[in-house]
Every structure is written in C-alpha cells, then in structure tokens.
C-alpha cells in the first residue's frame, strides 16, 4: 500500500502526535475532493475518501475547532461539506445533552432486547448471524466482519448496515446500536445512538433511511449489489420525549490548588482548561465504569490515549501525572491528597457513562471537603444549546458561532 492509504488505515495509534499527523495528511483532501468522494466506500484496503479521524475527535485528542480551522484555512468555502460532517458530532452531542431521556430509553430498549434474545432461540440465532456476518446479504456480512476486525466502518457503510438491520432483518434497533458500541473504536453514546435513531425514523419522526441495492453498488464501486433488501422503510414510533433540558450554567472554579482529572470524553483538556487554575497534579482515567468502554478495541485505544494524555499534561501543567482505571472515588481522593489539591477540575462529560461516573464522584469528594468542578469547553457551550431541532437549522446557527470564534462564516 502507498502512504496515502496508510494515513487512513484503521490501525489507530492513540496519541495526539498521531492524530496531528493524520490530520495533516488528510487536509489536502478536505475540500472539493472530499465533497465529491465522501460517500464512496472502497473497503478497508482502499484509499479512504474520508478522514478516518473519528477516534481522535471522539476522545478529543483532536478538537473539532482545530480540525475545522485547518480545513477552512486550506480550502475556504470548498470545505463546507467536511465542516458540516464534523459539526454533526457537535450537533448530536448537543441533542443528547438537551434530551438525556434518549440515552435512558436506549439503555432500556437495549436491555429489553437482550432479555428477548435470552428468551427466544429464533431471535438469538438471527442476531448472532447478523453480528457474525452470516446472513447471506452481500455487503452487510462484509461490514459486520470488517467492524469486528478493525473497529471502524465508513459512515455510509454504517448507515447501510443500520438500515438493513432494522428494515430487512427486522431486528431490534437498540441491539444493532449496541453491536456498534461494543466494536467501534470511536463508540460514542451521542453519535452512535442518534445515528441509529435517525435511520429508524425516530430522530426526525417519520423520516427513515432506506438502503437500496443500486445505491450500495454505486458507492462501493460495484463490490456489492445485495439482493432481497427491504423496499420500504416504515418509521419506528415511540412516546413523545420530555421537554428539552436547558444547559446547566457553568460553575466558577474556586481558587486554590487543583487536580486536573482527565477522562475519555476529553483527553485534550490540558490545552483548554480555565486560565489561571493552579493545577498541581493530573490524573487520567481510562474509563467511566467497570463495563465501559464497551468493547476491546475502544478499551485498548482509551488505555493508550490516557497514558498519552497524562504524559502531555505533566509536561504542560507541571506536577505529577498518573493513570487510573475508571473514576473511582478512592483513586481520585488519593491523587488529590498526594498533590495537596482542594479542588478537582474535570472537563465536562456529556450524557453517558463518564458523566454518570462523575456524578457518582461528587458526593465522596464533597464528604472529604473537596469540590468537583466540571468545565465545559467554550466550543460546546456555544454550540450544544442550538441543537434544539434538526441538523440544518443547527448548521445555520453554527455559522455565527464559528464566525465569532475567528473561523470566518463557517
């Protein structure tokens, strides 16, 4: 393979240096070339038409802002398609933050689906065949095996796969979303859950995504032309969601010595923490709870990324830096005491397991006379609040936000 293929291979190295190298390699193609070829999936061994930066964005070894800034600086308005694709991540994060009931519903439906699999031999066999790539459906089986092997799929393949899972195989959507979460390196509560809901007709009620043989053949270079796919996609339905929950106001960081607590929702916070905070120690956590990250691929990536984040933070903040499993109170309290910190400062974690773990951590810290402050990045604070409707209204509002952040008209 040539170097252009290596720059996008799914063998992700979990360091910021590698993230920056990959970004630099991709940026020449972030303009018109991306817009014209982004829907094409030539397979894992072909030159990629997309950036394959999602694992680095997901754990914030790269920030959305620096990726968008690089694309706009190189291509200007011709980078609009790529900029929009990056902003889908911010949009989905905001959607879930404003509507946490969506995540709770997914977990409930996933657990109900798992119970149904245990009770029904037929459903268990159908789910196993789908997950192992034994359905006989061209493309679908290949993507299942590619996901298991590499922990990554092209976004278009993810959409086709979800559509076939829901409308052709008629399997519970939450089990498909769970399958992705257990195998994707970039497994993300917001992007994954809401993408599956979008395909199923739940995100935009009544609007579904139907995978068709001709579309698959056209965008895979004729590699796959599956037969027997559903010809209709009837939207799934659910009870109305609760009212939107506004973003909580950002609490001030009290003066004094602070422990910087990094976690998988933001392994780059040492570059964006509140100015003036007296960071006297750093602790990087490799997960949120005992069962998260969900899959082996994500866990390996996160463990390496935590080591990298701790090393970088130690160099930039001074003081010691350690790595711990999970976000247990005992480890955090010990690190804070060793550093002589009275405050624990953590980057905000949006809805999901890490947020839950930080919530559980607040009580023990308070009991020990310490304060936990969750700091939301300005990027997130400015954009998440606009995820109240569909993506396109959000995208229009994002232009003013990007402009105010020095990124032109976005």
From TrEMBL:
InterPro entries: Crypto/Photolyase_FAD-like_sf (IPR036134), Cryptochr/Photolyase_FAD-bd (IPR005101), Cryptochrome/DNA_photolyase_1 (IPR002081)
UniProt xrefs under Pfam families: FAD_binding_7 (PF03441)
Cofactor note: Binds 1 FAD per subunit.
Cofactors: FAD
Keyword terms, alphabetized: FAD, Flavoprotein, Lyase
GO terms for MF: deoxyribodipyrimidine photo-lyase activity; DNA binding; FAD binding
UniProt: FAD binding residues: 34, 82, 85-92, 186-188
A GO BP entry: response to light stimulus
Domain Cryptochrome/DNA photolyase FAD-binding: 82-209
Protein name: DNA photolyase FAD-binding protein
């Amino acid at each position: 393979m040539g170097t252009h293929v290596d720059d996008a291979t799914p063998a992700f190295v979990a360091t910021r240096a590698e993230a920056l190298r990959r970004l630099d390699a991709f940026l020449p193609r972030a303009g018109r070339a991306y817009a014209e070829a982004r829907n094409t999936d030539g397979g894992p061994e072909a030159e990629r038409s997309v950036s394959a930066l999602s694992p680095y964005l997901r754990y914030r070894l790269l920030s959305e802002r620096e990726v968008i800034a690089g694309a706009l600086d190189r291509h200007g308005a011709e980078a609009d398609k790529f900029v929009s694709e990056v902003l889908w991540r911010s949009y989905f994060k905001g959607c879930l933050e404003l509507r946490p009931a969506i995540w709770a519903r997914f977990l409930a439906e996933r657990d109900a689906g798992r119970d149904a699999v245990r009770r029904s031999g037929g459903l268990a066999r159908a789910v196993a065949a789908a997950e192992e790539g034994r359905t006989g459906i061209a493309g679908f089986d290949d993507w299942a095996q590619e996901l298991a092997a590499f922990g990554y799929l092209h976004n278009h393949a993810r959409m086709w796969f979800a559509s076939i899972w829901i409308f052709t195989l008629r399997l519970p959507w939450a089990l498909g979303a769970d399958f992705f979460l257990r195998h994707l390196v970039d497994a993300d509560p917001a992007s994954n859950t809401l993408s599956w809901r979008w395909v199923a007709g739940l995100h935009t009620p009544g609007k579904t995504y139907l995978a068709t043989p001709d579309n698959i053949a056209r965008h895979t270079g004729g590699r796959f032309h599956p037969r027997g796919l559903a010809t209709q996609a009837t939207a799934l339905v659910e009870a109305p969601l609760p009212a939107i929950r506004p973003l909580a106001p950002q609490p001030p960081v009290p003066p004094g010595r602070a422990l910087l607590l990094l976690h998988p929702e933001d392994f780059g916070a040492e570059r964006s923490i509140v100015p003036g905070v007296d960071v006297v120690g750093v602790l990087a956590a490799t997960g949120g709870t005992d069962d998260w990250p969900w899959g082996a691929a994500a866990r390996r990536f996160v463990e390496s990324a935590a080591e990298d984040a701790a090393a970088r933070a130690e160099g930039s903040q001074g003081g010691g830096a350690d790595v711990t499993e999970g976000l247990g109170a005992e480890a955090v309290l010990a690190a804070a005491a060793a550093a002589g910190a009275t405050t624990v400062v953590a980057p905000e974690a949006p809805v999901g397991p890490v947020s839950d773990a930080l919530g559980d951590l607040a009580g023990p810290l308070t009991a020990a006379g310490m304060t936990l402050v969750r700091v939301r990045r300005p990027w997130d604070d400015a954009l998440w609040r606009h995820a109240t409707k569909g993506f396109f209204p959000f995208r229009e509002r994002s232009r003013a936000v990007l402009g105010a952040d020095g990124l032109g008209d976005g």
